[in-house]
Amino acid sequence: MQVSPEPVPQSAHEVKTARPGPALSIIIPCYNERGNIEPLFNGVARAVTRYDWELIFVDDSSPDGTIDEVWRLAQMDSRVRGILRVGRRGLSSAVIEGILSSSAPVVAVMDGDLQHDETLLEQMADAITRNGYDVAIGSRHVEGGDNSGLANSWRLFLSNAGIRLAQFCLPVRVKDPMSGFFAARRDLFVQSVSDLSGTGFKILLDMLMVQKTSPKVIELPFVFRTRNVGESKMDRKVLFQFAHMIVHHMLRKNSRVSRQPSS
């Protein structure tokens, strides 16, 4: 005769008290950054103590096993998540996927190469949650910031030339629109997704260029560190993608203007 299982006490079915999600999601696009993953995690854990946070690493199938290191850390700490992208490459599109996987009201973006100063993350989050800014930029070009960590004079020249061109196209005055280190209201970013080009390495510039009204932006100084592990991804392809993004947005802008009825 089949014996029915013992009834499970009602208390075992009770749902445990829900835990709120993170207030800050930090998106880190990465490629061949295995040696930087744990030091970056440790740096964020030391620096960000006033916000519940999560690290979302978005890896473009790095051959050095970056995602394996991310998953190892995720098994030790639930604040770490890894997204493995197969057959897709690109920093901007990686950032987009990372942000869309998050539900935090504030999202931050930083590189996985340890050149961005994680101690600035709380100030960025404060600027948005407490002071009403839409975007907080880690800036190398305001008082107290420094750009000397760029790999060489060629990269420095390209960065400065790109900044001058970008400033000409933006709806809001920003001294460092080429920064890859910033935080933003998640809803502002999500509302912009359909208009983003999603190409190249300059997702901040991409986001700022598509805003129909000028967002409230603050720039916070930081010192751009020297890379210790891995190598710079600046090459001719990146320059082409940057030019393509600028042209893409200028053509869209001109198209919108031409469709407006004349008075």
TrEMBL record:
GO terms for molecular function: dolichyl-phosphate beta-D-mannosyltransferase activity; undecaprenyl-phosphate mannosyltransferase activity. This is Undecaprenyl-phosphate mannosyltransferase. It comes from Komagataeibacter saccharivorans. Pfam families: Glycos_transf_2 (PF00535). GO terms for cellular component: membrane. The keyword Transport does not apply. CDD domains: DPM1_like. InterPro entries: DPM1-like, Glyco_trans_2-like, Nucleotide-diphossugar_trans. It is an enzyme of class 2 (transferase). The keyword Glycosyltransferase applies. Belongs to the glycosyltransferase 2 family.
